[in-house]
Amino acid sequence: MVEHEITEVGCLIAGGWVTGGPRVDRVGPWLRRVVSTARQAGERDVETALRYARTGARTVARMSPAARADVLERAAAEASRRRDDLARLLALELGKPVQDGRGEIDRVADTFAVSAAEARRLGGEVLPVAGWARGVGTTALTYRAPAGVALAITPFNAPANLLAHKLGASFAAGNTTIVKPPPQAPASSAAVVRLLLDCGMPAEAVQMLHGGAEIGSALSAAPEVAVISFTGSPATGTAVARAAGAKRLVMELGGNAATIVCEDADVAAAAAVCAATGYSNSGQSCISVQRVYVDRRRYAEFLGLFTERVRKLRVGDPLDPATAVGSMVDGGAAERVVGWAREAAAAGATITTGGDRDGATVTPTVVADPPADARLIRDEVFGAVVSVSPFDDFDDVLTTCNDSRYGLQAGLFTHDLRRVVTAWRELEVGGLIVNGSSNFRLDHVPFGGVKDSGFGRESPRWMIDDYTVVKTLMLRGLSLFGDQEGTR
């Protein structure tokens, strides 16, 4: 694809790509011109997709786990081969530096491979019913059956890998999936779906409908849909849950992640890690470093090293392999981030670097010692700004970290095992990263939060639990463990 080419994508409905009808353009935040255009779904498209999904679910469920795993393994290898092309799409649509985009596609490959492995492990168990008197003479077995039709609603910040998680795990479980991708990344999302189809995923296994909130709401409310996996804002997640009603839900709703740096930490290493992970993807990650709390005895040292590291981050063209920080999703998001930093400064904080923007590109910003009620402390900033604050007591800083409506993930730099265990127990988060920042994830490890950060756990093994239902079989008068009641 040449730089000035516009990628046109259709809706994938009932086994075919539908291109005719209304379209919406996506303006790339760095190039500031149309980079892709997507055909929008309508009410009839939703109805057609749901009918097809209902019948297609039976076809997918009848595939053997081995056959599904083979498709996913081929997709893992193909993702690696298409790495540069997919990373370029992410850069054009989202302003994501190609180095970050390549990393995301590497994770797509891993996620498909892990999903394949989990498909091969699907099974059930023999239950110990004969251990109780009423169970003597009976054999009980379970297996995990596909839920049927899954709905995957994906966000713009990692549209390829989060789609791979939702769609890969759903297919591994034996479901058909309807994908509602983010309007900001239609071509990137469609490219992942095309990859899977090219690798042998049957047409019945996936459909993709582009559109706004009304499409997401209609799909969420549909009785044909058995389970919904959503990643996005708490407000949109609440709307999805309200529309869904009594359905299985897996929701990852964001955060304002905290990282703690204790006095025994390697401060230089902590500053380097926080600088790298606080501004990757312009801070547009639910676990991006947002709040850093540093022991007051090391605060000035950390702030100086951190600010120096941040100033050295290369900002610019996301298509340049040397760029570390590209653009945010749009100019409005960039203005909000800069505005929050300036609000904190007006309330007494100090901006040690950054604090401005050029269009959708925010200069990496550090805000020192903002007030506790500042928006960049209380809310999810989702942008290229990190706050740094001192603390005096470890127990108190744990309370400060917990004083948030979010609870997704946290980071802790220390060599004190007692602090590690205390933080793991006391922090109200779904995951704790020790000697690393909050912004670290392994795609085969459970990931999710508490409070307003959502519920359920992503990563293929744990998502399959939500994408399947346990079915029980009881054989009366037939026992693997004997059919006579024991004597006392």
Sketch the major β-sheet: 7 strands, mixed
Structural class: alpha/beta
* Overall residue-averaged pLDDT value: 96
Note the beta-strand portion: 15-25%
Number of helices: 15
Which blocks of ≥5 consecutive residues have pLDDT under 50?
A: none
Name the overall outline: globular
In whole angstroms, the N-to-C terminal distance is 78 Å
Task: Assign a percent range to the helix content.
Answer: 25-40%
Radius of gyration: 24 Å
Strand order of the largest sheet: 15-18-19-14-13-21-22
Number of strand segments: 25
Active site: 252
Keywords: Oxidoreductase
Pfam families: Aldedh
Organism: Actinoplanes campanulatus
